[in-house]
Amino acid sequence: MEAKKIRSTFIEFFQSKQHQYVPSSPIVVKNDPTLMFTNAGMNQFKDAFLGNEVAKFSRVANSQKCLRVSGKHNDLEEVGVDTYHHTMFEMLGNWSFGDYFKKEAIEWAWELLTEVYKLPKDLLYVSVFQGDAGDNLAMDQEAYDLWSNILAKDRIIMGSKKDNFWEMGDTGPCGPCSEIHVDLRSASERAAIPGRDLVNNDHPQVIEIWNLVFMQFNRVSDGSLKELPATHVDTGMGFERLVRAIQHKSSNYDTDLFMPFIAALERKSGKSYGKDEPTDIAFRVIVDHIRAISFTIADGQIPSNNKAGYVIRRILRRAVRYGYTFLDFQKPFLFELTPLIAANFGDIFPEVRSQQEFIAKVIQEEEASFLRTLDNGLRMLDGIKADLLGSSQQVIPGKTAFELYDTFGFPLDLTSLIARENGFSVDEKGFADEMEKQKTRSRAASEQDTGDWVLVNDDSGVEFVGYDMLETYSHIVKYRTITDKKGDRYQLVLDKTPFYAESGGQVGDTGWLKTPTEHIRVLDTKKENDLIVHFVEKLPLQADAQFVAEVDREKRQLTTNNHTATHLLQSALKSVLGEHIQQRGSLVNEQLLRFDFSHFGKMTEEEIAKVEVLVNSKVRENVALFEQRNVPIEDAKKLGATALFGEKYGDFVRVITFGKEYSVELCGGTHVSETSQIGLFKITSEGSIAAGVRRIEAITATGAETYIREQEGLVKELQELLKNPRDLVKAVESLVQERNELRKEIEQLYLEKSAGVKDQLKGQFVQKDSMQVLIAAVTLPNADSLKKLVYELKNEVSKACIVLAATIDDTPQVAVFIDESLLEETGLHAGNLVRELAKEIQGGGGGQPFFATAGGKDLNGLPQVVAKAKSILL
């Protein structure tokens, strides 16, 4: 059975059991401070489990895109080394929200695996929670009895809390679970050792394929467990492992999910999979990582140096490193696999097909950039090797190896491999110490203690009224304490709020909670999943009082101006640059708007001007807002509404329209009622932020007016400095031309001076063995003239060895040249020599074996440079 059929069979099976199929949520998580990536199928249903919302359907099934590379679930370093861990994977799951429980979950799981998929029953084992004295939990007798009705008791394994009690996190819903394991070993291996002895023992052929979680409890912050008001079922089955079991393969990578990619790499590299373990690992790393990279880019996460973008960049670079080291790929190659991603996954995840070209271009540019970085790292390693050659110490320090890892993306194994090839070793313990220091710093920076919610009033839901009013009467539903390195702060949930929570690029509202006796400042408003949370520095004296919740009007108005301007900007960009424009990110606050979009070329000044003119024309037209709330998503699509890739939209959406066909977008943000409220729109910058992604920053209203006044002020200041010329541009051009002419004259004088120095020095070479040695102190105008002088002098004699200690603009510099014919004969190395000499001027440097330079701080050390050079060379 093909993988696509296996997936559709799962969905159809549960649809036959009255489950609603729900599409996968984006792999990149938004509005959840506890997660960076979706790491389990249940993530999109977290609010239902937490009680923050009522589940739309009591029975659900889906295939969820997941990524596990950071935090608690970190599989990255195991990926490729073994045959069953992955970065990106699909999680097949079925859920019950207060509907069925253990009986149905267990019986349906067995029916699907053995009667539909036809997995042999004698290859399957199940585990049951054995209980835990610490939590005062008894064995899960109900699950045990249900399984006993299905299979022999010797195939039921009692599992510890570690393996058979699932928890969302330190707090939250949790419960016992039953895992289903499959033994994929040969018959002879199964006869030798029973499969039950290998369950949960990291055997590559005895693996878990399905976990049935029975949510019965809620873990509170003091560590105790409370019964949930309703019980739920949350199951997760690794799709890749299931396909492997059904297709009778010994490795996930041998299935039709991965083999098309491996075959493509074999053709491109000329190497064969299955012949050599290091090469096989490289194949597996690459075919796994291309999926993770492609799916995250499709969901809006561009590789970068921050947060989720940094994780994706590290995954991409890991794949490139393996291709570079083991498959001899010296040029970008990953991007060529994106058509296979679209072909194999485009039906179930259409975003990878619709954005195939964009994904490929981003990956290609990232690869090219990293290959340049890799080359720089290799040169750095060459310098390290050169230093060690003249030393009795033949070990690369752990700190140096970590710097290569952290700065250049060199894994420890690559550094160790290169070191071994050159007769060195690496201080791996020192590397591990540096890694642990970084992790400790990272943990300390993000450490936060979150208390339990304290209920103040009945929690019957939160009503957001901020589209229609900026002030309303409210009550606190619940609050909790947040403690971090800044101290204690508090989060409040109100029954009715006008405060817009940060979402869709728009910052959260600030304002006040007022009573006749006190004013509590609201510092920020954010979403936690779908819960609107208000941040305050102190709790009110009377938490159960009625408050006036009041938004900061000025900040909201300026932010609203910028948000509407962002919509007008996107439409203008499509009009000027083309329909390929897609939003890739945004920031909207009271000071500016920032809009990131897909485009592969720098905008010309003419294009920027056209966009500005278009937006300002819509501002002057005073186009009225047409807002539609609770529009069925399919109806919104028929309207041609623009959606943001990577956003999870519900069944009903809000559509914001300005002009009948000019700007129609799905949006939950705040907007002006007429575009004239924006006043003025001005682009302040346009540039690249990532491969294939441009960024525009712009300002509106009073911010734009202030900017123009400042620019006018600069022009007036220039006019006054230039004595109010009739034509300011021509006056500046004349100044530039005069400056260029003077620069040429100065450069000519420099050349003449350098020529004079050369004439003085060329007669000062001293014969030493087979070398012609020149050691001298000189004064020169710039660094370029120092290098030029060295190369002119080396042409005056054969087998030259030159050391110049130079004063350049009151700073010391040293240059060393050694004729290449002398390198092997004398063992000299310009880079090593210049580093030694630079100590005298409190500096450092390096370079190639035949030419190297160094700079320093102590000008008075130059005579010692000359003296030391003479002691070494003469």
List the main descriptive attributes of the protein structure presented here:
9-stranded mixed beta sheet, alpha+beta, 874 residues, 6-stranded antiparallel β-barrel, 36 strands, 26% strand, 39% helix
Describe the structure in your own words.
This protein is of the alpha+beta class. Helices cover 39% and strands 26% of the residues. It is built from 25 helices and 36 strands. Strands 1, 2, 5, 6, 7, 8, 9, 10 and 11 form a nine-stranded mixed beta sheet that branches. Strands 17-18-22-21-20-23 form a six-stranded antiparallel beta barrel. A six-stranded mixed beta sheet has the order 31-32-33-34-36-35, sandwiched between helices. Strand 27 and strand 28 (663-666) form a beta hairpin. Helix 10 packs across helix 13 and helix 17 (553-577) crosses helix 18. The termini are far apart. The mean pLDDT is 90.
Secondary structure elements and pairings:
Layout: H1 3-15, E1 20-21, H2 46-50, E2 59-67, E3 69-70, E4 73-74, E5 88-97, H3 102-116, E6 124-129, H4 141-148, E7 156-159, H5 161-164, E8 165-167, E9 172-183, H6 187-192, E10 206-219, E11 225-238, H7 239-246, H8 259-269, H9 277-298, H10 307-326, H11 338-345, H12 351-354, H13 356-389, E12 395-396, H14 398-408, H15 412-421, E13 425-426, H16 428-446, E14 449-450, E15 454-455, E16 463-464, E17 471-484, E18 487-494, E19 496-497, E20 511-514, E21 519-528, E22 531-536, E23 546-551, H17 553-577, E24 583-588, E25 593-598, H18 605-620, E26 625-632, H19 633-638, E27 652-658, E28 663-666, E29 681-690, E30 693-700, H20 701-721, H21 728-761, E31 766-768, E32 771-780, H22 783-794, E33 800-808, E34 811-818, H23 820-826, H24 830-838, E35 844-847, E36 851-855, H25 862-873
Parallel strand pairs: 1-2, 6-7, 12-13, 16-19, 32-33
Antiparallel strand pairs: 2-5, 3-4, 5-11, 6-9, 8-9, 9-10, 10-11, 14-17, 15-17, 17-18, 17-23, 18-22, 20-21, 20-23, 21-22, 24-25, 25-30, 26-27, 27-28, 29-30, 31-32, 33-34, 34-36, 35-36
Helix pairs in contact: 3-4, 9-10, 9-13, 10-13, 11-13, 14-16, 17-18, 21-22
